Amino acid sequence: MPTRTGARARTTYFPRLAAERPDIALCRASTAVARAAEAAAEQHGLGVGHHLVLKMLAAVGPCSQQVLSEELRIDRSVMVGIADELEKAGYVRRERDAQDRRAYAVTITTPGRRALTRAEKGVPAFLDQTFAALDPAERDQLTALLGKLLATDSTATD
Amino acid sequence: MPTRTGARARTTYFPRLAAERPDIALCRASTAVARAAEAAAEQHGLGVGHHLVLKMLAAVGPCSQQVLSEELRIDRSVMVGIADELEKAGYVRRERDAQDRRAYAVTITTPGRRALTRAEKGVPAFLDQTFAALDPAERDQLTALLGKLLATDSTATD
DNA sequence: CGTCAATTGTTTGACAGCAGACGATCGCCA
DNA sequence: TGGCGATCGTCTGCTGTCAAACAATTGACG
């Protein structure tokens, strides 16, 4: 026992803490998950934010950056960079909205749809690996609980 | 209804996304929770990290910064600052470990215990408010699920 | 028509977090 | 004894995020 003498009692304090402070557990879990997600996403050349923007555009049609920000819970300032990069990659078009010339109408392009399809392909494997500790029923439970939590989160100030 | 014309159809896309991507739901929920926790914690002059360090010291006795880092999932670099501030506030003592002069033996002081007691007092109210969307049973479910997730997280590389 | 608050997209500055490198120290081994 | 890899605490630089300020535009109201 050269390294790690008895002093390093592997305190195992954390489980106790996690049980007592769901907020801490939530944050710690999310950082690990977020890191894994970003790594998995960038294998396709898209960050998580880019992926989500494409996904939402494909699902609901052209949007302003503002709507994208609010729905995806991504800051407006950050959305600027994401839109810039997506446009530069040719995955979206940015045109001024005719009805409201302040806003852009961000539209997904055909290459964008292809990139989205490619990125989506990796998602199930990533989820299976990241949530391997939970069986399908538990995963559904977690999703439902988080959904409840988010439905009343502080961003819903209106 | 001057503002918010009909064009803002309140897409309500997010719930669908959250149901499909538990990783995103986790991250979004955690940022909201983390912000609230930090705000609540700093009412007592302690950040969340400071609070956790005091809590762990009170629970398991003197520790090295390394052990504190690992158990609390706080980076070593960040722990330096936390320990500095706690020491300056008189809440912990930092002495060199006699057995291993590289490491500190961080010990909580009596003022530190008082500060901890004060900070702990606010926790139940904060949790009740932050997890108001969940009844006690659901809160326990969430805690259990997160515990499972964290037990096998990537930091457990050993 | 002119004014004014509100909204959209953007830029800027501040700040937290992390990776990497460093000196000091430890344990091990020749 | 001396050397060598590993560990602890620290510092530095980078990245990503957020708050605040800004110009352009809109809609409402006098």
TrEMBL record, chains A, B:
The keyword DNA-binding applies. Keywords: DNA-binding. The keyword Ribonucleoprotein does not apply. It holds the Pfam family MarR_2. InterPro entries: HTH_MarR-typ, MarR/SlyA-like, WH-like_DNA-bd_sf, WH_DNA-bd_sf. Residues 19-151 form the HTH marR-type domain. SUPFAM superfamilies: Winged helix' DNA-binding domain. This is DNA-binding transcriptional regulator, MarR family. It comes from Goodfellowiella coeruleoviolacea. The lineage of its organism: Bacteria, Bacillati, Actinomycetota, Actinomycetes, Pseudonocardiales.
